[in-house]
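FORM 12-B: Structure-to-Sequence Request
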């Protein structure tokens, strides 16, 4: 049988959860830019986790820099990485960390393909839609990390496919398969659910 103290305690916990949820909703609503959204979420991370995410993000930026400049670099440059060595690094990176789904191909067909721009719903920001944030985070851990914190855990899928097809001689099918896409029976590229 519930005693008056237990009832008061349960009611207090319920009101506290409601206040915390309202405060969180208000904090999210106060984020008018993606940068503010990232900063709010980063402030909630443990310092070691933040440091780990930042370090991995820097590694991904190095790979992206190589992808952009590989054909401009000269073998005499001190930081030169050949196409074959760079491809090995890229492929290892994909195998180890995966690719965030930041292009138009997504696992969940309910996610608007232009979710990041806000154009999908009267310029609504994705972070103001809890269901959309949840769907995006369910795409993959790497996608979730970028959506919540703005840190890349891997090279974005669309950049890998573009690089491999335009600069490394891969067919679209081989590049898309490499990042985990499949061709549906309807002839549409997507991620397996």
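FORM 12-B RESPONSE
SEQUENCE OUT:
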């Amino acid at each position: 049988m519930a005693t008056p103290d237990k009832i008061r305690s349960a009611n207090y916990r319920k009101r506290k959860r409601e206040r915390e949820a309202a405060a969180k909703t208000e904090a999210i609503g106060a984020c008018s830019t993606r940068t503010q959204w990232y900063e709010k979420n980063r402030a909630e991370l443990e310092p070691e986790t933040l440091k780990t995410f930042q370090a991995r993000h820097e590694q991904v930026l190095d790979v992206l820099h190589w992808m952009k400049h590989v054909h401009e670099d000269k073998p005499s440059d001190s930081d030169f990485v050949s196409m074959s060595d760079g491809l090995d690094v890229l492929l290892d990176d994909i195998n180890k960390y995966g690719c965030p789904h930041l292009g138009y191909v997504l696992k969940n067909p309910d996610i608007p393909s232009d979710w990041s721009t806000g154009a999908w719903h009267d310029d609504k920001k994705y972070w103001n839609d809890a269901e959309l944030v949840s769907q995006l985070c369910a795409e993959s851990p790497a996608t979730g990390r970028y959506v919540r914190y703005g840190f890349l855990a891997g090279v974005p899928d669309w950049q890998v496919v573009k690089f491999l097809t335009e600069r490394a001689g891969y067919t679209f099918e081989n590049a898309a398969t490499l990042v985990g896409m499949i061709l549906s029976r309807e002839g549409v590229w997507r991620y397996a659910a």
